[in-house]
Specification:
The protein has 217 residues and is an alpha/beta fold. The strands form four sheets. Strands 3-10-9-4-6 form a five-stranded parallel sheet. A two-stranded antiparallel ribbon has the order 1-2. Strands 5-11 form a two-stranded antiparallel sheet. The protein is globular, with a radius of gyration of 18 Å. 37% of the residues lie in helices and 22% in strands. Helix 1 crosses helix 6 and helix 4 runs parallel beside helix 7.
């Protein structure tokens, strides 16, 4: 689904910090995310949650006072992560081995897990408590990020409902990042490829190899 955002803001160091919303530059952009309920989207479209592109994230962090909150599951973060970012997963692996859950896991593996490498997950029941312990001041500027932007959109809604007042959303997620968008990145993979696993990971490697061979030719 394509979402048109009329309040996507560009940070300019010479302007006042992001906390003063009327000073933000506004422009229209289109970001592809999967279907999501209306409330998180309304928060972003209204400007209550500030949408920030990956290429603008460093300025938001360094000059705008935002702290980067990575809400991806641990196995994605292990592949690649922004140095100095905080981490609280919105989804965690579902460890229940009851008969119904096992059936769901088999269906998930057949339709999703085998291709993407994603584990069968559940909402982290301690997400808000863990964020509060890490960031007790709810006026702190948090730039919430995930791989594609959907999970972080959900997370901003939860945080907003829990009283956090200065939230940013990494528009399109880390998948839209290119080399140089973030000053320091750790891990064996590029940031934009960290969500890719399973069989699709090997297809990606083959594609990148073919592209490299083509350039050399």
């Amino acid at each position: 689904m394509e979402i048109q955002l009329n309040h996507l803001h560009t940070f300019h160091p010479k302007q006042p910090p992001f906390s003063t919303y009327p000073h933000h530059h506004q422009r229209t952009t289109t970001v592809k995310v999967h279907a999501v309920s209306g409330n998180p989207l309304k928060l972003i479209q209204s400007g209550t949650v500030v949408a920030i592109l990956p290429k603008e994230a460093s300025a938001a962090i360094n000059d705008g006072g935002y702290k980067l909150l990575d809400i991806r599951p641990e196995w994605e973060r292990e592949k690649s992560r922004v140095s100095g970012s905080m981490h609280v997963p919105l989804f965690v692996q579902d460890m229940d081995n009851g008969p119904i859950t096992l059936l769901k896991k088999w269906v998930h593996f057949g339709y999703i897990g085998l291709w993407t490498g994603q584990s069968f997950t559940m909402i982290n029941p301690d997400f808000l408590d863990q964020v509060e312990k890490m960031v007790p001041d709810k006026s702190t500027k948090l730039l919430v990020a995930c791989g594609e932007g959907l999970r972080s959109m959900m997370a901003t809604s939860k945080l907003h409902n829990n009283g956090y007042t200065n939230l940013g959303w990494l528009a399109g997620g880390f998948n839209r990042a290119v080399e140089g968008d973030f000053a320091e990145v750790e891990g064996p993979e590029k940031l934009q490829y960290a969500t890719i696993g399973g069989a699709s990971y090997y297809f990606l490697k083959i594609l990148l190899l073919l592209q490299a061979v083509g350039k050399n030719d």
